Amino acid sequence: MSQAGQSPYRFRLNPGFFAHLFKAVFKQHHRALVPMLRRVIPRDGVVLDVGAHAGQFAKLFAKLGPQGRVYAFEPGHYARVILRTALRLNRLRNVVVLPLALGERSGVAVLSVPVKRSGSYGFGLAHLGAGGEDAAELELVALATLDEVVAALALDRIDFLKADIEGYELRLIQGARATLARFRPALLIELDPIRLARAGDSLDALWQELVELGYRPCTPTEAQTPLGSPQGGDVLWLPRS
Asked: Is residue 51 part of a domain?
């Protein structure tokens, strides 16, 4: 396993990189979510994409809210190279890329980026904290709370927040309580019990936290069907009236 001090920004321009870049620029994932997203993202809306990865969600958000603004949080250098290139080549000028990880505190964290046997990065599975893979590159990244970022940017509106940060979703929410109480955005949160456990958290704890913050869980569909008990996968959280 590479150490954090050994050239954390090193990556090779191998076929894996160009495959990642091609998909980011020319492919569009998550189209099935568009009917639901249209209900929660106004054309002039402000969207937070936490764990922006290669930009598949950021591209959708930017097109659904052409008069608004998307803030794409991506701490990993490799992912940001691809993300910025995809946004530029798709001429999406309403996306701001922020090189930050979000959690329950501010400081510096270690980002683990898995390395496949082929030598390419499994950067979609990058996560905060060392360990869990046979081979990984470790990168030191800036860590902040969402409440701090919102204050620094002087945001006066947030309509929607998506988070897919490989098990650190509860930490994100813990550092965003003031923001959620003030703006009451709709949330699309990935819930993975195994990855939450790796971070020292649990599905039940995250579920309970959001319920106590006044959110109700629903299916991520246009029907927005209420969910009665904790379950994994992508869950849409809507603020209670």
From this structure: yes
For residue 116, tell me if it sits in a domain: yes
Edge-to-edge strands of the sheet including 160-163?
A: 95-98, 69-73, 46-50, 160-163, 186-191, 233-239, 215-218
The whole-angstrom separation of Cα 203 and Cα 201 is 7
Supply the Cα-derived Rg of the chain in whole angstroms: 17
Model pLDDT for residues 94-139, shown as the tens digit of each residue: 999 999 999 999 999 999 988 887 778 887 888 998 777 778 889 9
Q: What pLDDT does residue 105 have?
A: 97
Q: Which one, of 107, 10, 90, 101, lies nearest residue 53 by Cα?
A: 101
| Domain assignment of residue 2, yes or no | no
In the chain the first and final C-alpha atoms are separated, in Å, by: 49
Q: Collapsing DSSP states into helix, strand and coil, what is residue 87?
A: helix
pLDDT-based confidence at residue 10 (cuts at 50, 70, 90) = low
Residue 216 φ/ψ, nearest 5 degrees: -115, 135
pTM: 0.92
Query: What's the rounded Cα separation, in Å, for the pair 199 and 133?
Result: 14
Domain count, the chain: 1
Output the domain CATH number for residue 59. 3.40.50.150
Using one digit for the tens of pLDDT, what is the confidence trace for 178-207? 999 999 999 999 999 999 999 999 999 999
Burial of 5 (0-12, 13-18, 19+ CB in 10 A): exposed
3-state SS assignment for residue 60: helix
If 0-12 CB within 10 Å is exposed, 13-18 middle and 19+ buried, where does residue 98 land?
Answer: buried
